[in-house]
């Protein structure tokens, strides 16, 4: 009897873990309803195998609009049909996506992601990159080491790295497989200039990788970048 109960519980937990692993998410910015549907269809096309299609497997795919924090959830799967008159006769598979209600846990995590990004923005507002890291805004054009220097400095900030770690943890929980953070943050320089940055998270270590988008000096003259 004990063995039967143990086997039943093991099967229950296996099903729970499989269900969690089947969920995936994408990030977008101001995407339309048709764009969200296309993202879901693409996910079904590339992530439902023929064997899964024939077993009737359906997966949940969440699309988080980072502009307003809204979440659209789809049940994705493949429809298959046996075509006997093809040479050779074969199965044909078509992706499908059906909108469904988003779970409260996913909504909560999407909201947490926005909150952590806002907290990160607040931290960056308090930072001024010192002269021994970047001497001036005019040092940055054609600078091969400046992005790494800024990255190293931000990684050394406990508050910034903590919030990046929290952002990464939420993204891992949501299993973000498409899209990435596209926010542009502004960090002050000691000479009065400002550097506009995009960040990437390097998985496992939560290292901040910096992309310099634009740099302006204290008089708002653009020294680097195109926006």
SSE layout:
Elements: H1 2-22, E1 24-28, H2 33-47, H3 50-54, E2 59-65, E3 71-83, E4 90-100, H4 104-125, E5 128-129, H5 146-155, H6 158-174, E6 176-178, E7 185-189, E8 194-202, E9 207-216, E10 222-225
Fold and architecture overview:
- This protein is of the alpha/beta class and 227 residues long.
- It has two domains: 22-102, no CATH class; 107-225, no CATH class.
- It is 40% helix and 30% strand.
- The protein is built from six helices and ten strands.
- The chain has helices spanning 2-22, 33-47, 50-54, 104-125, 146-155, 158-174, and strands spanning 24-28, 59-65, 71-83, 90-100, 128-129, 176-178, 185-189, 194-202, 207-216, 222-225.
- The strands form two sheets. A five-stranded mixed sheet has the order 4-3-2-1-6.
- β7 and β8 (194-202) form a beta hairpin.
- The longest helix has 22 residues, at 104-125.
- The protein starts with a helix and ends with a strand.
Write a brief structural summary.
The protein has 227 residues and is α/β, with parallel strands linked by helices. The protein is 40% helix and 30% strand.
What's the total number of strands? 10
The major pleated sheet works out as: 5 strands, mixed
Tally of individual helices: 6
How are the strands of the biggest sheet laid out side by side?
Answer: 4-3-2-1-6
Please tell me what the overall shape is.
elongated
Q: How confident overall, as mean pLDDT?
A: 86
Alpha-beta content class: alpha/beta
């Amino acid at each position: 009897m004990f063995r039967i109960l143990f086997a039943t519980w093991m099967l229950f937990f296996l099903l729970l873990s499989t269900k969690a692993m089947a969920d995936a998410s994408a990030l977008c910015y101001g995407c339309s309803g048709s764009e969200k549907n296309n993202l879901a269809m693409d996910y079904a096309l590339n992530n439902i195998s023929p064997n899964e299609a024939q077993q009737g497997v359906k997966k949940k795919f969440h699309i988080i609009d980072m502009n307003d924090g809204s979440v659209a959830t789809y049940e994705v799967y493949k429809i298959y049909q046996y075509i006997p008159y093809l040479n050779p006769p074969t199965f044909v598979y078509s992706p499908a996506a059906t909108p469904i209600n988003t779970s409260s846990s996913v909504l909560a995590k999407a909201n947490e992601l926005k909150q952590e990004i806002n907290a990160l923005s607040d931290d960056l507002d308090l930072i001024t990159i010192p002269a021994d890291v970047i001497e001036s805004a005019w040092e940055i054009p054609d600078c091969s080491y400046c992005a790494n220097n800024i990255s190293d400095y931000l990684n050394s900030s406990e508050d910034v790295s903590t919030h990046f770690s929290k952002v990464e943890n939420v993204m891992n929980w949501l299993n973000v497989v498409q899209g990435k953070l596209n926010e542009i943050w502004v960090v002050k320089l000691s000479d009065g200039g400002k550097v506009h940055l995009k960040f990437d998270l390097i998985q496992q270590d939560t290292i901040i990788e910096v992309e310099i988008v634009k740099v302006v000096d204290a008089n708002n003259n653009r020294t680097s970048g195109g926006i």
